Amino acid sequence: MVEMSRRAVMAGGAGLALNPAAGGPAAAAGDAVQPAPEVTRILARYVVEAQYDELPADVRKEGVRTLFNYVGVAVGGSHHETIDIAVSALSPFAGRPQAGLFGRRERFDIMNAAFINGVSSHIFDYDDTHLKTIIHPGGPVISAILAFAEMKPVSGKDFLNALILGVETECRIGNSVYPNHYDVGWHITGTTGVFGAAAAAGRLMGLTEQQMVWALGLAASQPVGLRESFGSMNKSFNPGRAAGNGLFAAILASKGFTSSDRMIEAKRGWANTISTKQDWSEITDGLGQRYETLLNTYKPFACGIVLHPAIDAAIQLRNENQIAPSDVKRIELNVNPLVLELTGKRTPQTGLQGKFSVYHAVAVALIEGAGGEKQFSDRAVLDPAVVDLRAKVAPRVDPGVKPEQVDLTIELNDGRVLSKHIEHAIGSLERPMSDSDLEHKFVDLADGILPAERTAKLMQLCWSVESLGSAGEIAQAGAKPAA
Amino acid sequence: MVEMSRRAVMAGGAGLALNPAAGGPAAAAGDAVQPAPEVTRILARYVVEAQYDELPADVRKEGVRTLFNYVGVAVGGSHHETIDIAVSALSPFAGRPQAGLFGRRERFDIMNAAFINGVSSHIFDYDDTHLKTIIHPGGPVISAILAFAEMKPVSGKDFLNALILGVETECRIGNSVYPNHYDVGWHITGTTGVFGAAAAAGRLMGLTEQQMVWALGLAASQPVGLRESFGSMNKSFNPGRAAGNGLFAAILASKGFTSSDRMIEAKRGWANTISTKQDWSEITDGLGQRYETLLNTYKPFACGIVLHPAIDAAIQLRNENQIAPSDVKRIELNVNPLVLELTGKRTPQTGLQGKFSVYHAVAVALIEGAGGEKQFSDRAVLDPAVVDLRAKVAPRVDPGVKPEQVDLTIELNDGRVLSKHIEHAIGSLERPMSDSDLEHKFVDLADGILPAERTAKLMQLCWSVESLGSAGEIAQAGAKPAA
Lengths: 483, 483
Fold this sequence. Notes:
Chain A has about 475 residues and is α+β, with helices and mostly antiparallel strands. The first copy, chain A, contains 22 helices and eight strands.
């Protein structure tokens, strides 16, 4: 290792000699090049060539749902303190007002706008999830292309095609390095999201195959995010910066700024440098046939999915039985051990702490019939009725219960006993949220930020994206009109 | 590993439960936290507290030389195709004209200006080198703070203090992970440079200790650069993007955008995620006493240092003996094996290939008495006199010759034999370039870009930075006046 570094120091210059793929003198020095297909080029070719008309109907539909869910969460996060700070910090430096910010009046250049909207979309950890990799695909990709589409009109069909190609790019690259890459500490949404953003934006810019290769190379040079940042504003920073970095890469490549042709797969390229696992077939196999987009899921509840079965059960029992909190004597849950390990907080004091309390989650779901961001607010956590009821929640660990399952039993004061078994919680791949569920989530998130009629129009634009002459209409409808 | 990922998926939410340092539920799950000092905070405190008056004179002097060399190479690279492309690509998106670009008339917002100037400084691989880590310290740090200093006046003393603190930050962090981090594939100038840029810029912005902790955390979230990009424009991209990313981090932190308090040292923080080696003492020991800045070196020749002893010997023999190319019968060199391994190209056809040819380097040095960028141009490589002479260069590998040594013998047609032994080439720590050497390099680089009197003024401003009321004067003098 030391000798390798020494050679690197000595070579200096433009460093060509260090690049075995370039066939320079170093190739003779015994650095074996790992056999890998031309992953970067194969992926680039797919991204520049794939046509909207070739997309299966179910893939298009899931792409539209990904867009719909993204817009809802981005509007929802748009007035969080994190966004106020970022907007205030960047305003003196932003370029021309090319693109809007969800839920706000300010307009920034497309890279800064993509950053802000990407942060907004992740604020509540309520965005979409590609469960195979834990990537949140929408934030990086859609933040980048929606900003671009507002500056330069693109049809809704082209927009949706680019969105899906971006999601395919980031999730396939994520598959190739997951789980090692995530486990060591990378926030995989930020590290792969930059590829997705570059691919999708580059497609809308009309990059050639070679330019797309370079865009992916410049994206590979800008991974974003470490898991240590979880719990701070830096977590939401990551998908936002991935969106901005991806745009930056595509913009430079579009003018001929070069990179290596093998940045993903080379010996000292992205995957070998950033992960101990590389599965090239995950990136290159079945392009245009197997779609990761179909594996995207949407959260019905604004907390970790470990709590979703319990919340789902509580809401169903409430709705089926018109339970009043004062009727409840005791709530018993049989849960997977992860539930208490991750969400065992008995007496949360803040909304954020409430997301780590199965006691709170079940109590507030039974009272309010929901598990949205409002149910994980400081208000909800300190509500006396919720506090009273959570004392009656009695979870019991049962290794026989799978993480996606729960058995919930409510004993009422009148002696009745109500039970609900959940096999797969709402929001899972097996029981996806319906379009109507997504609409309720959207309306709840936009409440207090956009007027109701504007929210309705925005939702309609998202659903009908494929018929829009200009996808930028969605960004315009999602922002507040300038004063 | 898989189980770890599963827990991560399930926790979701704001991810607090995944952060052992936060004392969340996951801490109980058996994830041992590695014992590490509060590296991020210790470093942040040093960066916000260290005073210019406490800097030893030799450290200040080396900081000035670092600045001087940086400005020269940044001017020199400013009209390369790489910069033309980057300026053209980013012009539509840049913000207010807050800062100039070396050697050019355009003005950008400070983040885009820092990017362009950072790229310029690395174009010829002719910038400074911290040999312990192969970091090129000047590019990321000075590009960031000079752009800032043009927007908001800062004294030359404060500027130099920030510059040195930035260099200390990036090189110390580099020491802690080198060589493993570099060997696996990271371009260490880009991955550590973002810390240096954030620290230096944050210092000039007057960040509090806590804000500096966050700035370093946001910097940790944005490493730049892979070695696979060497040989493409993407290599110069890396120090430029590191400069821009560091500014981005400091700007956000200055308004209260938070990160983790332990982003460098936490279990899933920067050093553990990005390297298999972590030596915290390299970061925290001897702050304000041991200065990495003193270890910075400057290249006298525009090629890898493996060639420097041979070029040095050729120039010395030429100057001592007034050798005409036609007098030369044969040139023999005893060289370390690395020389032929890395620079064994016999018949280079382009200037860039010339950097990997010991034959060309010795021939052109003997004819032109220099090894600057002009000697590694297409013109020089195709010059018939150089082509003739390089055929007479006969290197011989000798494992007994150290990489920093050479024995060069010239046999003349009249029978005379001239010899020169180099123990340490010019530009090494043992035989540093003199201020006068740096001036010659600077003038050579600026030739054809800035008028001679402007170059002279610019050099004078750099040498006298400590007495400047506003360090931004340097940036103004280094740009071309707007038309």
